[in-house]
């Protein structure tokens, strides 16, 4: 009874996200993931879920800081301005190198950042899921490219991979990468 009550309290908070009944799916991760090869710039091709207020030209640059931590620099163009956010990625357990955590502030816990597959040179498929009492979960997914546009076949391959892991792509949406400033 109390769990159901808590659920009713939590639902309005997360209704803007993609939530589903049951625990998080446990997708297969990229075997022997190599973080060094993953560093550098990735462009967001598609994202789950698509929110209303969001920018275009979304990209992230992963690099190693002098102290050895992994820097994540997100950038997007929104309301006529390039906006950036800096975060940190960690590998919690070297035995599972494709299971990262990313945080954008000291005050927020690391969110899961799972690399389901990547060839390092064109495509990466990333998934994140948070269990709430194992009653339901909120999830996020990204199809990332080394270029702003990926061939249709590559995107459908990535979508199929996510769907085969039981991930609901109903609210997946393409990111606008047209007319972006390149440097
Ligand atoms: C990514 O960030 C690193 C460190 O700041 C920088 O040296 C590098 O040029 C950036 N790469 C791209 C593609 O923006
Ligand atoms: C957006 O920025 C450009 C270049 O800085 C400027 O010319 C234009 O007037 C701006 N548009 C708006 C709606 O602020």
Structure description:
The protein is an alpha+beta fold and 183 residues long. The radius of gyration is 17 Å and the shape is globular. Strand 3 (56-64) and strand 4 form a beta hairpin. The chain has helices at residues 2-14, 35-38, 152-164; strands at 19-21, 40-48, 56-64, 70-78, 81-91, 99-103, 111-118, 123-132, 136-145, 173-174. An eight-stranded antiparallel β-barrel has the order 2-3-4-5-6-7-8-9. The chain has three helices and ten strands; from the N terminus they run αβαββββββββαβ. The model has no long low-confidence stretch (mean pLDDT 89). The longest helix is centred in the N-terminal third of the chain and has 13 residues, at 2-14. Bound molecules: 2-acetamido-2-deoxy-beta-D-glucopyranose (2 copies). One 2-acetamido-2-deoxy-beta-D-glucopyranose binds next to strand 2 and strand 3. It is found in: Secreted. One of its GO terms (molecular function) is lipid binding. Residues 34-176 form the Lipocalin/cytosolic fatty-acid binding domain. One of its GO terms (biological process) is lipid transport.
Q: What CATH architecture would you give?
A: Beta Barrel
- N-to-C CA distance: 56 Å
- Helix and strand run: HEHEEEEEEEEHE
Secondary structure tally, helices: 3
Strand order of the largest sheet: 2-3-4-5-6-7-8-9
Shape annotation: globular
Pfam families: Lipocalin_2
Main location: secreted
GO molecular function: lipid binding
Domain Lipocalin/cytosolic fatty-acid binding: 34-176
């Amino acid at each position: 009874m109390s769990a159901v009550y808590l659920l009713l309290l939590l639902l309005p908070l997360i209704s803007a996200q993609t939530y589903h009944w049951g625990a998080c799916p446990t997708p297969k991760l990229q075997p022997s993931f190599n973080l060094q090869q993953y560093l550098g710039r990735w462009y967001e091709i598609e994202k789950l879920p698509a929110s209303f207020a969001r920018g275009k030209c979304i990209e992230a640059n992963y690099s190693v800081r002098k102290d050895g931590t992994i820097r994540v620099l997100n950038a997007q163009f929104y309301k006529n301005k390039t906006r950036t956010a800096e975060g940190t990625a960690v590998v919690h357990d070297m035995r599972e190198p494709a299971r990262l955590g990313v945080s954008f502030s000291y005050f927020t816990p690391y969110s899961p950042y799972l690399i389901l597959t990547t060839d390092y040179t064109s495509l990466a498929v990333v998934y994140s899921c948070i269990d709430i009492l194992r009653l339901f979960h909120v999830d996020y997914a990204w199809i990332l490219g080394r270029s702003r546009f990926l061939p249709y076949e590559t995107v459908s391959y990535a979508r199929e991979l996510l769907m085969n892991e039981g991930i609901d792509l109903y609210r997946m949406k393409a990111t606008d990468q047209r007319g972006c400033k390149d440097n």
